[in-house]
Amino acid sequence: MSAVATAAAPNQNQQEDGGVTQNTARVFDEVLLEVKDISLAFGGVKALTNISFDIRKGEIRAIIGPNGAGKTSMLNVINGFYHPQDGTITYKGQVRRKMRPHNAAKQGIARTFQNVALFKGMSTLDNIMTGRLLKMRTNMLLQAIYWGPNQREEIRHREYCEQIIDFLEIQAIRKTPVGRLPYGLQKRVELARALAMEPELLLLDEPMAGMNVEEKEDMCRFVLDVNEEFGTTIALIEHDMGVVMDISDRVVVLDYGRKLADGPPDEVRRDEEVIRAYLGVGH
Amino acid sequence: MFYREAGQYKSDYASDQAIFPIRQDRIGVLLIFLFALLVIPFIATNYLLNSILVPFLVFSIAAIGLNILTGYCGQVSLGTGGFMACGAFFTFKLTTWMPEVNILLIFLMAGFGTALVGIAFGIPSLRIKGFYLAIATLAAQFFLIWMFTQNPWWTNYNPAGVITAPPRALFGNFYITGIEATPVNKYLFLLCFTAALALVAKNLVRSALGRAWMAIRDMDIAAEIIGIRPMAAKLSAFAVSSFFIGISGAAWAFMYTASVEALAFEVTRSFQVLFMIIIGGLGSILGSFLGAAFIVLLPIALSNLPAMVGLRLPVDLIAHLEFMIFGALIVFFLIVEPNGLARLWQIGKEKLRRWPFPY
Ligand SMILES: Nc1ncnc2c1ncn2[C@@H]1O[C@H](COP(=O)(O)OP(=O)(O)O)[C@@H](O)[C@H]1O
Ligand SMILES: [Mg+2]
């Protein structure tokens, strides 16, 4: 609903929820990731057609569009989960060949999912600790012995995870199995796990979907803080236009697998085609 | 004394990450172990040692092994019997080929050999899951037993196809296999060996590797996206699991039965160990022990308890009862409490911690 309101009535002031506002004058020059002419189809269904855009180092980049527009597919392409039939991806100056998600992880790309993808049988803490796996070095034999190098490594990484736990204010649920947590907290734990990877590029797929206003505000604050304090580049899919306008530096708009618009939020908001697309699908 | 953790503040992460973070648990486990080590050997009858404690320990090792693969890494396996047979026959071949090498080392070598076999038969798990993987491991089970029965080389051309444990000492004349080995010796060795193996298993599952296994179990796609290589995680689970199961097969053949044929490791053995971890608790080392104890004790309880209350049941009825109780329990645990006896124990402890207050 709010998507319509903001897209259709661009002159309306939507800072009313207050608190979280991005400085819109930030400038970013260095390209971290560039996708070029990406096309992806599933059988006859074209999920993405000739999509090109870039993500600059340090920015918060929003990807918006109606349901089925191809936003999730785009993230899946970026982290190697889907392989596009056409197009190239340049990450940190290198053209990427076909790669598996764990290679993307190794190169510093972390993500969260539209439908929470936590490890249900593990505690919050263990979930976050899995995010450190790529940074852990001790071999199987030392792990079997545990005491000594392995324990020192466990403690070192535990300390890092505790910082994230403090940062995201989830101290009280550290030992709780995540399956028992309410949805909003699960989303937060998933963010924590992604942060534990110390990513350079963080892909967030609808991190605020299904949250109440208060939870949304918290999440917005966390996203901004992550971006500011760790300098993490963030690509964010979000339906709430108010949120997108508030926190993103640049927005790319997808519709039916095509790119409709690309630019700073207030420019995109005034774009005729964008307004039509949003009204057209009857949101 | 109350069972409480109040007042036990953890000042550092090391003690928070301990195996038994609560002091009462630590003391309890230590006391049980000391009792098993220092008292039981003097008071236990040969029957208790040979027919209850030794098989309990042997099965515990197997259950820990299968629990690593199935409970922690989520890969179903019906090949446990086949891997136990590997451990038994590898041990036999190695120790008859190199009689001078210490039997403990031979057991470990047989375990590593079985780990390699486990990796080979784990490769299908990279492609298939669940039911289909179960069928693939069943094929491994049949293939392995067939190989050991068909090829007389494995039994050193024994006409009956039987391997018999030669006398081997752990040190001096502390014999743990063969006719010189007393029940107490076997029991003491197995007790310490099992404790050490359980510690290794616990250490692995609370470290990076264990978390990678559980991540694959809970959601393999998300695991891959945080950088876990599914192949490495699954195959390492197959390897470690088979290592344990191989050692348990060796201990079965050399210390429990002392002489054995490949058919002792038929598919019913696979199911038996699977039932242990379902009843004891998937993804729990403690559960592996509870499940093993349960399955060893149930038939004995069934054949003795009715007699003790003056009831005389025919033998075949007892056998049927055993099946029915297993069946009912497995259905119960699968549906109601997938975390098994270990979870029930934990719930009990939580209740105890709050006692006498209801909340
Ligand atoms: N794995 C898949 N198999 C088949 N079709 C898919 C798959 N993933 C996405 N699609 C299709 O691609 C289109 C875009 O989907 P998606 O990227 O999830 O959209 P959004 O995230 O923008 O809502 C949809 O038509 C969807 O049905
Ligand atoms: Mg989506």
Low-confidence stretches of chain B: none
Find the structural class of chain A using helix and strand composition: alpha/beta
Give the strand order of the largest sheet of chain A, numbering strands 1, 2, ... along the chain.
Answer: 6-7-8-3-9-10
CATH class assignment of chain B: Mainly Alpha
Q: What is the CATH third-level topology name of the largest domain in chain A?
A: Rossmann fold
Q: Which geometry of chain A do the CA atoms define?
A: globular
The number of helical elements of chain B comes to 14
Q: What Rg of chain A, in angstroms, do the CA atoms define?
A: 19 Å
Number of strands of chain B: 4
Main sheet record of chain B: 2 strands, antiparallel
Indicate the CATH architecture of the largest domain in chain A.
3-Layer(aba) Sandwich
Largest interface by residue count? A-B, 41 and 30 residues
Cα radius of gyration of chain B in angstroms? 21 Å
Strand content of chain B: under 5%
What is the H level of CATH, i.e. the homologous superfamily of the largest domain in chain A? Answer: P-loop containing nucleotide triphosphate hydrolases
Percent of residues in helices of chain A comes to: 25-40%
Task: Please name the CATH architecture of chain B.
Answer: Orthogonal Bundle
Q: How big a fraction of the residues of chain A is strand?
A: 15-25%
Oligomer: heterodimer
Instruction: Give the CATH level 1 class of the largest domain in chain A.
Output: Alpha Beta
Subcellular location (chain B): Cell membrane
Keywords (chain B): Cell membrane, Membrane, Transmembrane, Transmembrane helix
Main location (chain B): membrane
Membrane topology (chain B): Multi-pass membrane protein
